[in-house]
Amino acid sequence: MSERIDIETERAIETEREPLTALPASRAEENRARAAGWRGWASTVAVVLLLGLALATLAVVGGRSLPERIGPPVEEIAVEQVRMSPGRIDLTVRNAGPDPVQVAQVFVNDAFVDVRGGEDPIGPRRSTVLTLDYPWQEGQPYLVSMLTSTGLVIEHEIGAAVETPTGGRDLFAVMALLGTYVGIVPVVLGMLLLPVLRRIGKGGIRFLLAVTVGLLVFLAVDAVFEGFELGERSGGAFGGISLLALGAILAFLALTFVDRRLNRRAAAGGGGRLALMIAIGIGLHNLGEGLAIGSAYALGELALGAALVIGFALHNTTEGLAIVSPLLSAARPGVLRLLGLGLIAGAPAILGAVLGAGVNNAELSLLLLGLGIGAIAQVVVQIAPALRTADDRETGTVAAMDSTAILGVAVGVAAMYATGLLVLA
């Protein structure tokens, strides 16, 4: 009996000693892993520095060993902004070419005019303001011809001269009010249809989600066309149409990251998460839309009035419908939550209108349009699986869409097209 007790006692002592003997081994493994990690980072930094040094050496040696470019200098000037005031035209021009450009003379409708600014050559991607003393008349077209020091003539057409609104509280207040009318109010009005839509069944929910996809696809395609038009007007100093693709890619990746984080925190709140993502996507689109509205008003191309407000209200009310569609099968959301979604989707129109009225920049517009396109594309990717039927989800079929979903997408596209015709600008 005593021998058995002694054996059990020895086993217990050995069991207690095992963690003590195993602990140093585990710490040693951790230290070795940490040291290996530091060595890996050190080697990575060393390789990056070596690569940078090699590229810098190649640039210096290659630049000195290669001959100079032959041929005349490449001169490209893009007019980014035109501001009209009584007896004066201010042109913000940017050098979009690789060589410096010197503006020697400026003509307006073939008449020589006095110019202030631009005395020094404009470096690549640099900008300057040319102030022309010219007694222009409102509503008349003008052709501005800039003669460079090499004899190249670069023309810019002003379709209809109109005095540019001066900045200040009054202008920004008008733009903020306009952004509220065409952004927040229509979106919230569309979201008020949620109690009515809750009475439909699962088939109706799938149909409305398909309508949402149609709405978003139309917005994205419309933004792409608008981006191509802006790309033609921009000088291309910062990439031109490439900014549209850059914004789309960045927004798509950013919203994908946000969606993954939200999915980890609330795995069960799929409907609410999707509604939030739709609101963010529409908000980025309305940011670009507000920028276009503000720019058009600053250029005198936009007539404010009841027709404009009603047209945008009917057009953007469908966006509110798109936001609440994922909430039909989820728990009943609170009023504050719905209001928050409406502000996320509509409030960026205010910021865009204010920026557009004060900063008329084609590159900024392209980037913001790209952000809206990328955000909408990411949201469409999220909604697409919900358009499959129950049988398709059970069998794992990926690309199937029944007639209900196809009809819903068509209705969404047609609705956005029809309401877009009511927007008078």
Structure, explained:
By secondary structure, this protein is α+β, with helices and mostly antiparallel strands. Helices cover 62% and strands 11% of the residues. It has helices at residues 2-65, 169-191, 194-197, 202-233, 242-265, 270-298, 306-324, 335-346, 348-358, 362-383, 390-395, 403-420, and strands at residues 77-85, 88-95, 103-108, 111-112, 114-116, 127-133, 142-148, 153-158. Helix 2 (169-191) crosses helix 8 and helix 5 (242-265) crosses helix 10 (362-383). Mean pLDDT is 77; it is low at 18-23 and 393-399.
Span between termini: 102 Å
Secondary-structure element order, as H and E? Answer: HEEEEEEEEHHHHHHHHHHH
Helix content: 55-70%
Residue runs with pLDDT of under 50 for 5 or more positions: 18-23, 393-399
Largest sheet: 4 strands, antiparallel
Number of strands: 8
> C-alpha Rg, in Å?
31 Å
Name the shape in a single word: flat
Oligomer status: single chain
Instruction: Name the structural class.
Output: alpha+beta
Topology:
Elements: H1 2-65, E1 77-85, E2 88-95, E3 103-108, E4 111-112, E5 114-116, E6 127-133, E7 142-148, E8 153-158, H2 169-191, H3 194-197, H4 202-233, H5 242-265, H6 270-298, H7 306-324, H8 335-346, H9 348-358, H10 362-383, H11 390-395, H12 403-420
Antiparallel strand pairs: 1-2, 2-6, 3-4, 3-7, 5-6, 7-8
Helix pairs in contact: 2-7, 2-8, 2-9, 4-7, 4-10, 4-12, 5-10, 6-7, 6-8, 6-9, 6-10, 7-8, 7-12
